[in-house]
Amino acid sequence: MVANGATCGDVTVFSASTVDQMQFYADPVPGAEVVLGRRRWLCCGAIADDPFFVNRLNGEVWYFPDTGAEWWRSSSFEKAADDVTSFFLRFMAGPRYVDLSATGREDQWAELLSHAGLLEQTGIR
To answer: Exposed, middle or buried: residue 112 (CB in 10 Å: 0-12, 13-18, 19+)?
Structure first.
């Protein structure tokens, strides 16, 4: 399967035509708790309004968990997955989606995943 961008509930992967325009998210922000940069980080999508990134050196996917603060003011920057495929399977189309969604199990995408039996999966890393 090949896709050019996707929106799965609260999680969006930018399309090839959009991703270059969204790299401003990786620019250092004065006063930010976490210092990013385009050489190391590729902003490939957003979770609600907060960007998530792929480490260009090793392919890991990182994000800013919802702490109640704007993403660039947060000191919480966490590894979500070892690679984009694992991120997709766990966080976009799997059991960890509800951890990212602002509404948890109460949105249409979570309902679809639940009906498909994907929220209850175990053994996905």
So the answer is: middle
Residue 88 in 3-state DSSP?
A: helix
Q: Residue 120 corresponds to which tokens in the numbers above?
A: 């209850």
CA distance 93 to 40: 26
Specify whether the CB–CB gap between 84 and 61 falls below 8 A. yes
Q: CATH number, domain at 38? A: 3.40.1580
Q: How far apart are CA 76 and CA 73, in angstroms?
A: 9
- Chain Cα centroid distance, residue 64: 8
Q: Which domain holds residue 23?
A: 6-115
pLDDT at position 86, please? 96
Q: What is the pTM of this model?
A: 0.88
Tokens 């309004």 belong to which residue? Answer: 49
Question: Which residues does 92 contact at the CB level (< 8 Å), separation at least 6?
Answer: 6, 8, 11, 13
> For the chain, which residues score pLDDT lower than 50?
1, 123-125
